[in-house]
Amino acid sequence: MVRQTIRSLFFGSAFRIAGTLVLAVAVTIGGAFGAGVLGVPTLESMDNEFGDVDDERTEILTDLTIHNPNPIGLGSADVDASYDVSMNGVEMANGSGKNITVEPGTSTESLQTEMRNERIPGWWVTHIENDEQTQVEIDATISSGLLNRSTEVTNEQTVETDLLSAFNSEETRPINADRALVEDPILYVNATRGEWAGVDQQHTELRLEFDVYNPKSYAIPASQLGYEITMNGVTVGLGESDREYVLPPGEETTIVTTTRIENENLDDWWVTHIENDQVSDLRIEFDATFELASGTTITIRLESMTYEETMETDIWGNDEASETGSNSSSADNSNSTSNSSDGETNATDETESDVEGAETNDETDDGAEEDIDGGTGEDADSTGDGGSDGTDDGDTNSTDDEEDDDSLLGS
To answer: Acidic residues bias located where (predicted)?
Structure first.
């Protein structure tokens, strides 16, 4: 009776037979690992790269290199793999692979997951708060539920950018009106400075300062300064400052404006960043509105103040040809050395002769150049402070030129 009960318990059905065999295999494998007959598979390394990207998701492709020291595969050992990607502690993506058949020797297991682009603004906030630094951490684990064993590999990568330092410049740049009856340049920008002013979940603020010198003999009122911020052609910030400045004649005035990046636009920028091999071109363009003596206004695009900077990231650390998280500047003109502004910002032959405050032009034909005196406010009849401000030589001004200027931009 006892023998018949045991037989019916273990061998009474095909299901029980299969269960008995699986249990026996599991016990055998577990015992072999416990006795040291079989080795535990280890995770040796992992490689990541970005795949396809669209408006909502970014594909992440991961290759795990697994070493199995055993002469047999471990398809029945309940082997799983998983990984997590975080940037400054913000979880960006996670993926997993179930019931992996680990072949003998070294093999590669490929995993695929998707990161939601809506997480980019949250990461960006931490990047700016952390002085444009990001700590990328990728944790990968291979585990066996049957053996209750696991191994893991952690890769860490620091990504650094430097988007604003090149904005700090003491290069003198002319501002031209490009209007009839107006003698250019109407103003000079003697210096620019920029810094991050604050960041929250909605906005990233940039505080920008411009030291503007007025070479004319009359005040020039500026009613507003507009800006547009683009990254790879995607507009991430657009606005204007409604603070009015009156630029006194022969003096330098510091214009301060706060520009904003709308963080909700950064996920659209991210798509272009990945499509462009993690390279982005930051561009800030300005325009200014001046009030005319007639009561009308004109808006001038300040091309000489356009700022450009190239941002490169190497989130996975795969770029062996450059430093991790490198950042470089770019300029439209190869002569530019102090910042990445438009080509007109560079010292050309005209700038060397007209903008150098320590020199005057003794060979001018109509006196107009003596009136401007290079925009740094220093001429033969007046003293300055090294090129930051000064006065016009009113005695040498051409009467016709004064009448032409005053007709449009007189105070």
So the answer is: 347-382, 390-411
